[in-house]
Amino acid sequence: MALEIKLLDYGDIELESSFLVLARDCGRVRRVPVYGFLILGGRYPVVVDTGYRDNAIMETLGMRGLQFHENMIERQLARHNVKVGDVRYVLHTHLHIDHAGKDDHFPMNTTVVINRREMEHSVSGLMHPQYPKPDIQHLVERLHTRHALRFEDLEITGPIEIMPGVVLDAANAHTEGSMNVHVETAEGRATLCGDVIYDFNDQIVEPLYQVNAHEPQVTGNHAGSKRGEKAAIKKLLATSKFLLPVHDKPAKIEGGQVVGRLDMQVPGPITQTVPRRDWFPA
User: Fold this and answer.
1) Beta 46-48 vs 29-40: how paired, if at all?
2) CA-to-CA distance for 43 and 119, rounded, in angstroms?
3) Which range of residues forms the domain containing residue 246?
4) What value does the mean pLDDT take over residues 203-213?
5) Measuring CA to CA, which of 75, 254, 260, 277 is 20 to 30 A from 148?
6) What is the CATH number of the domain that holds 210?
7) 279 lies in a domain?
8) Domain for residue 246, yes or no?
9) pLDDT tens digit string along 216-260?
């Protein structure tokens, strides 16, 4: 059976626009979704990212959380007839405040999987307070509980298949330990890319303030270099048929370009067609 990806709607956040796309609408607030993902069709359900802990914790970053009862992870999983105890793995693209806030809702026999460098980065202070204390403390508890936590060293090993059709790969962007999750679906490879991409339109389709062909705009929130972030985005565009970030609707990719947008599942219907750009105008 081919694997399928369902979006889990964890609510929204309001934040300053240029945090998402460098130099965009500085000082203006933008509302964006916070998604997680449920991988179905394998031996057991797998969750990728768990959203933020509660609305109050987002205020520590000067952001506003908009999470309601229907956005609770238990209710989102129940829409697909899955309980938290059914989930074998929780995979993390990274451990920021809006990605790892509900790990403590899962029992200790659910294994949380992260890139080891991301755990190190989370306690380095380099992006504090985007790694809040209660989230990281819970992971330390898992660190000392048998089989509750699994580390990968993706920068050294290269891609790792965690189960048939699901491969983990170092993202090399956003945070020092971010990872991509590649999923083989009936329609091709879909990549859950965390925050390597925040906004398809202003970063890729019509990249803000960029004049060079095929040159993505970077985010306003990354631990590494602009060169590294641009390269990571280009690699995703070159290697996956579907891209699923956490703060924007999924996109279909052809020839390194965004050609369509999807709604709440992959594979799924195209809800918006994006005209192809001619990178070599006459």
Assistant:
1) antiparallel
2) 28
3) 4-273
4) 97
5) 75
6) 3.60.15.10
7) no
8) yes
9) 999 999 999 999 999 999 999 999 999 999 999 999 999 999 999
